[in-house]
Write a structure and sequence with these properties.
- By secondary structure, the chain is of the alpha/beta class.
- The chain is 60% helix and 14% strand.
- The protein has helices spanning 14-25, 32-42, 45-55, 62-75, 91-103, 118-132, 140-154, 156-163, 176-191; strands spanning 2-7, 28-31, 81-85, 110-115, 167-171.
- The protein has a 5-stranded parallel sheet, sandwiched between helices.
- The radius of gyration is 16 Å and the shape is globular.
- It starts with a strand and ends with a helix.
- Bound molecules: BIS(adenosine)-5'-pentaphosphate (AP5) and magnesium ion (MG).
């Protein structure tokens, strides 16, 4: 199985690159952000709770996203592998993911981090916010809060995979295709 974690701050290009990766490698895309927006769209209780935090640029509780990922792993038992996008976002989530995969006799192949500076992130997200309808893209203050939340709680997850020698960081600025080519190179090394 190929289980890849795409990592990086809000607006780094995780979703954009995930779409290309699932086509090339026939993997299942698991984006906790997309799953949460799905819950909001359906008006579930979980969605209502998550919406308050998401609109404010804060992370939702670990147990919520771990539960969603666990369900998706169970629902896709025959998958060739998964791309985790926006998950794990805390060290507790990374530990839980290792346990979930271990119980299925699988493991993370590697993490690829997309490096993009704060000014470019803000520019991309404000631009997307003009059309996306995502409330968390509409306001520079919320975007900066998301970046701070990333630096405080999510950045340490890189160290978790570094310790396991499963971490590679690449430049996330450039054309989508250039970046994809670099990701594919790293991914080939994880497949060996
Ligand atoms: P989530 O949906 O994961 O959002 P995010 O991490 O803030 O990141 P984005 O989806 O905004 O960015 P991306 O890296 O996918 O970039 P994209 O490809 O879209 O999470 C939303 C919220 O849900 C969180 O704030 C939190 O509340 C909650 N949540 C989710 N997961 C959670 C978890 N595990 N734990 C707790 N809470 C969780 O690209 C962005 C834009 O840039 C696009 O317009 C794109 O077209 C453009 N772009 C992409 N690549 C390039 C390029 N190379 N050059 C120029 N523009 C580019
Ligand atoms: Mg995304």
């Amino acid at each position: 199985m190929l289980n890849l974690v795409l990592f990086g701050p809000p607006g780094a290009g995780k979703g954009t690159q995930s779409k290309k990766l699932i086509e090339k490698y026939d993997l299942i895309h698991l984006s906790t952000g997309d799953l949460l927006r799905g819950e909001i769209a359906q008006g579930t209780e979980l969605g209502l709770e998550a919406k308050k935090l998401m609109d404010d640029g804060k992370l939702v509780p670990d147990a919520v996203v771990i539960g969603m990922i666990s369900n998706k792993l169970d629902a896709n038992k025959d998958a060739k592998g998964f791309i985790f996008d926006g998950f794990p976002r805390t060290v507790a989530q990374a530990e839980a993911l290792d346990q979930l995969l271990e119980s299925k006799e699988s493991a993370i192949s590697g993490m690829i981090a997309l490096e993009v500076g704060d000014d470019e992130l803000e520019r991309r997200l404000l631009e997307r916010g003009k059309e996306s309808g995502r409330p968390d893209d509409a306001n520079p203050e919320v975007i900066r809060k998301r970046i701070k939340e990333y630096n405080d709680k999510t950045a340490p997850v890189a160290g978790f995979y570094q310790q396991q020698h499963k971490f590679t960081s690449i430049n996330g600025v450039g054309s989508v295709n250039e970046i994809f080519a670099e990701i594919v190179d790293v991914n080939e090394s994880y497949k060996k």
